[in-house]
Amino acid sequence: MQIIPDELDRRMALFEKTLKEAGVKITHQRLEIFREVASSLNHPDAETLFRNVRKKLPTISLDTVYRALWLMVDLGLLTTLGASRDRTRFDANMESHHHFVCSVCGMTHDFYDAGFDRLPVPEKVMEIGKAESVQVRIKGICMRCMRKKEAH
Amino acid sequence: MQIIPDELDRRMALFEKTLKEAGVKITHQRLEIFREVASSLNHPDAETLFRNVRKKLPTISLDTVYRALWLMVDLGLLTTLGASRDRTRFDANMESHHHFVCSVCGMTHDFYDAGFDRLPVPEKVMEIGKAESVQVRIKGICMRCMRKKEAH
DNA sequence: TCCTAATTAGGAACTATTATTATTTAAAAA
DNA sequence: TTTTTAAATAATAATAGTTCCTAATTAGGA
Ligand SMILES: [Mn+2]
Ligand SMILES: [Mn+2]
Ligand SMILES: [Zn+2]
Ligand SMILES: [Zn+2]
């Protein structure tokens, strides 16, 4: 599963622009870390990104990967998925989208739905706080896990 | 914030029934741990529950709290909220409901919405897997954090 | 090119969670 | 009721994910 090159280019351009505007340095490490997460459709965790980035930058440290990722989250270039029992996963897809999460294997798949994007915030929620985003998470069993289950 | 006594009784009764049916022992520890999480509206974490249960059972161990909580999750008596940067939080509210999450302080508040409960699963999602539940998460800033912010 | 504040690598530390094991106990059987 | 025993617990050690510390390096401005 690879992203289309044009979209990757768009993301990389936004990355450079955003870091410059924020006045933080564009280092090799940050560039390669972002390229890696921005290329993936898998919502990878920090450890996975670390392993992949190390192929290009063999001396990079895990700490740098974490620092870079949280910086990018703060800058609005990434979001995170909290998968409970699991480690944190990162998502470079900043378009309005939703997730299907497999309750067996944890696989997390994006999907788009214009109706979901425009769900009206109920009035009673406005008493709780000021809503900024609405996201739908569908839990279920993915195809692969379903097939595995059927085959005992 | 306390739960209404009737609802707590209902939850406690279901707890006993569920454990019996599953053939697992109803221990003091499990009882008090469940009572604690079932009494709360705050989505507490394991450490918080541990501290509170220790008032009644001073020798209980944190490990027991975790084991009991995950058991109850497996038995369908609790769910968890994965709050990313944070520790796991547990939820004894098993009715169909949704969450408002404050992006500043992490406060997580239940709300109910019949419309959200019946959101139709988009067709394209059926190709990803078999959906079992749909939950909406609204992120934003809670009233308290908003007031704090205004007061500089 | 030189300078310097920002960033990094590496390893130690920290925190949430889980495993190990000897002891205790719930609840079934007698 | 007492006995029996598999299940559950407390205490502590171990893991795993993440963050902190510090000396060395570097991006980018002067
Ligand atoms: Mn996504
Ligand atoms: Mn809830
Ligand atoms: Zn799966
Ligand atoms: Zn808040």
Strand order of the largest sheet of chain A: 4-3-5
Interface with most residues: A-B, 40 and 40 residues
Tell me the number of strands of chain A: 5
Q: Please report the distance between the alpha carbons of the first and last residues of chain A.
A: 28 Å
Looking at this structure, what is the CATH superfamily of the largest domain in chain A? Answer: Winged helix-like DNA-binding domain superfamily/Winged helix DNA-binding domain
Structural class of chain A: alpha+beta
Quick check: average pLDDT of chain A?
87
Rg of chain A, rounded, reads 17 Å
Describe the structure.
The structure is a homodimer of 152-residue chains. The first copy, chain A, is of the alpha+beta class. The first copy, chain A, has two domains: 5-74, Arc Repressor Mutant, subunit A (Orthogonal Bundle), CATH 1.10.10; 98-151, Dna Ligase, domain 1 (2-Layer Sandwich). Chain A is built from seven helices and five strands. Chain A has helices at 5-22, 28-39, 46-56, 62-74, 114-117, 123-126, 143-150; strands spanning 79-81, 89-91, 98-102, 108-111, 129-142. Chain A has a three-stranded mixed beta sheet. A two-stranded antiparallel ribbon of chain A has the order 1-2. Chain A is globular, with a radius of gyration of 17 Å. In chain A, 26% of the residues are buried. The mean pLDDT of chain A is 87. Chain A binds chain B through residues 80-86, 88, 100, 102-103, 109, 111, 113, 115-116, 119, 121-122, 124-125, 127-143, 145-146, and chain B through 80-86, 88, 100, 102-103, 109, 111, 113, 115-116, 119, 121-122, 124-125, 127-143, 145-146. The site of one zinc ion (ZN) has 7 residues of chain A, from α7. Chain B binds a DNA duplex (30 and 30 nucleotides) through residues 24-30, 45-47, 59-64, 66-67, 85, 87-88.
